[in-house]
C-alpha cells in the first residue's frame, strides 16, 4: 500500500510540499495491519526496524508502573495521520507499549525507506522532525491541563484537542467524532477515577455542550466547550510556516 493521505494532509496543513515531496511520500511502500481493542501494536523494548502510522481508529502510549502489576498510565493518544513511534527511528527501542484503542488500522513504514527520505529530501526530513516536536508539544499541554484544569474542564480540553486534530486531516467534521475509549481508559488518561469521569461527562451533557452516545460525540457548543477548557490550539501548530 501507499502512505496514508491523512499524513500528507497533516504535513500540508503545516507547511508547503513540493510536487516531488508529495511524489516521494506517495511512493513510500507500507504494510497494512489491523488490531483489536487493547492489542499491542508496537511493543516496548524491542529494537525497531519500522515505524507505525495511524490509518483508522486510535492508539495510545501505555506505560506500566514498576512494582504495581496491572496498573498503567496512558501518556498520549494518536489519531489518523499520526506517526505513532517515529522517534523509534532514531532510538534503540521504546520504553512503553503502543496499544490499539478500539479497532484500529495502521500502516508500517520500514526504516530503510525513512533513511532514504532523510538522505534525499531535506525538507521532508525537517517535517518528519517537526511531527515528533508536535508530539512533544501535545504531551507538554497534557501536563499543563492536568495541573491547571479539573474534572469537566480537563475532559473538555481533551475533547477539543482530539476533534481539532481529527478535523485538521479530514477524519472528522461538523463537530462530530468517534472516541473509542471506555470510561476506565479515560480515567487512566485524565488521572481520575471512573466515577469522576462519569460525573464530568454528565456535567458537560447537562450544560448543553456535548451529546455523547456510546463512542459517538457531537460538540453542540464549540465556543462554550473551548471556553470552559481554556483551549488554544496554537500548540498543535496548524498554521503553515511563513518563510
TrEMBL record:
Give the InterPro entries listed for this entry. cNMP-bd_dom_sf (IPR018490), HTH_CRP (IPR012318), RmlC-like_jellyroll (IPR014710), WH-like_DNA-bd_sf (IPR036388), WH_DNA-bd_sf (IPR036390)
SUPFAM superfamilies on file: cAMP-binding domain-like (SSF51206), Winged helix' DNA-binding domain (SSF46785)
Q: Which UniProt keywords apply?
A: DNA-binding, Transcription, Transcription regulation
Report domain HTH crp-type positions. Answer: 149-223
The protein's name: Crp/Fnr family transcriptional regulator
Which species is this UniProt entry from? Paracoccus simplex
Ranked from the top, the taxonomy reads: Bacteria, Pseudomonadati, Pseudomonadota, Alphaproteobacteria, Rhodobacterales
